[in-house]
Amino acid sequence: MLLHGTDALKQAAAAGHALPGFVAYNLETVQGITAAAEVSGRPVLIQAGSSPFKHAGREALMRLALDAAEDSAARLGVHLDHSRDIDEITVCLRAGYTSVMVDGSHLPFAENIALTREAVRRARDHGVWVEAELGALAGDEDVSTDAVAHRTAMTDPRQAAEFVAATGVDALAVAVGNVHGFTKDPVRLDLDRLAAIHEAVPVPLVLHGASGLPGGELHGALARGVAKVNVNAELRRAYLEAVRASLPDALPGSDVVSLWAAGRDAVRDAALEVIGRLNPEGETP
User: What is the pLDDT of residues 100-115, one digit of tens each?
Assistant: First the structure.
């Protein structure tokens, strides 16, 4: 069933948990994410967004994600991730997405506010909640590149308060030492900065680039207002490793179905492991 509204996000924030946002690229990743939500009984976001659209095609991936969510008994939101295009946001709103992320983090502060306000205005007409980003994350969303966070690009707590007040966003993605993709050395979050942001803004916080994040860092973030966590690289790695392991048996018979099934099941298992980390006490809401 489609997960509308911000109740799941707010409940996660109140409980010190986080709503997982899993990036989907194709049918098998959508199926794996959906299966994880069904097995866990937890609310989950299928993030069919701007970058995966380049691979699968926007209309095709939108329909895959929305159909999977609507047909499942699990609570599944469909989220547009990292969109810089108001027209793309509008298309997804009209298609039935339950949340969108407008990414103006590359813009000057005033322009980020203007872009985000317009996205919020359009989303309100559809009853959809909006995530925005302030600060810049290093790394590639689709390829792990051993990125290193830059302190000068981190989110400023006072600026975050001004941004949220000026835009009316429902959730704020922050840069506090997190990066996209796996890294050579363990990521260390600026938890003091995160606590100051949490104190300064009245909305739940979002942590992008959580793949491979040490448990202590992750739990520290959950205790400081992070109520949505994006995971991509862990699912990509699980998919590719499963396909590689299955390939020797599949090649003689050209059995692509077994490869796809192995990838799908690996995504499910990886997503389930993440869901467990984001809900430390293990109780079902």
Answer: 999 999 999 999 999 9
